[in-house]
Amino acid sequence: MNEVPTRPAPNREPGSASPVTQMSLWPPPRSTRHSNRRPKILLGAAAGLVVLLAAAGVTTWALLPGEEAAAPLREAIPDPYTGSWSGEMSQRDAEGALVIDWGAKLKLDAGTNRGSADWFTLGCRGSVTLTENTGDSLVFDYVETYDPDNRCVDESVLTLTLGSAPDTLEAQWVAVSHGGTQMTSEGTLK
């Protein structure tokens, strides 16, 4: 057996054995035998958790009822409807009494589901967005963007169908007035 030589302690008698041999002020070096595996295992576990959470989110989103109905229509406006249109609309109240005749200009952008509207007699402008294509008609949401005299309604529904005469559209605009009265305007746009 090999014995480790001992050094005498500084304040001890020579020849007496010290219980501490070769004391160091620094801790012993750590083993690096397993240190390379831990980061790979942790990274793998984190990546797996991210994939699992993403899959759960997609599955939950796909199973929610009514999500398709809430999504905006991304279908483009059909070619026969695109372009610039103008005409006169007759507005009637809920009892059918004439309220006003007013001029309208409508521009429907090709390749999109959007357009603009100018009710020039009333001094109002807004944007239209396609919300439904029934095959026989197109339904748009109208949102007011310019109304300096506060005469027009902020939101309404515009329905367009191809007219009986070539290059015409039949338009129906339905809204609720500021006073709560439902108003309907109808006319032909050329």
Q: What would the keywords be for this entry?
A:
190 residues, eight-stranded antiparallel barrel, single chain
Write the layout of secondary structure elements.
Blueprint: H1 37-63, H2 67-70, E1 83-92, E2 98-108, E3 114-119, E4 124-133, E5 137-146, E6 155-162, E7 169-176, E8 182-189
Antiparallel strand pairs: 1-2, 1-8, 2-3, 3-4, 4-5, 5-6, 6-7, 7-8
Structure notes:
The chain has 2 domains: 37-70; 79-189, Porin, CATH 2.40.160. Helix content is 16%, strand content 37%. It has helices spanning 37-63, 67-70; strands at residues 83-92, 98-108, 114-119, 124-133, 137-146, 155-162, 169-176, 182-189. Strands 1-2-3-4-5-6-7-8 form an 8-stranded antiparallel β-barrel. Strand 6 and strand 7 (169-176) form a beta hairpin. Residues 1-36 are annotated as: Disordered. The chain crosses the membrane at residues 41-64. Keywords: Membrane, Transmembrane, Transmembrane helix.
Q: Helical region count?
A: 2
Q: Could you give a short account of the major beta sheet?
A: 8 strands, antiparallel, barrel
Low-confidence stretches: 66-73
State which percent range the strand residues make up. 35-45%
Radius of gyration: 40 Å
Q: What would you say the CATH architecture of the largest domain is? A: Beta Barrel
Overall geometry comes to elongated
Order of helices and strands: HHEEEEEEEE
For the residues shown, what is the average pLDDT?
A: 78
- What is the strand arrangement across the widest sheet? 1-2-3-4-5-6-7-8
- State the end-to-end distance: 112 Å
Helicity level: 10-25%
Q: Return the structural class.
A: alpha+beta
CATH topology of the largest domain: Porin
Q: Work out the count of structural domains.
A: 2
Number of strands: 8
Per CATH, the class of the largest domain reads Mainly Beta
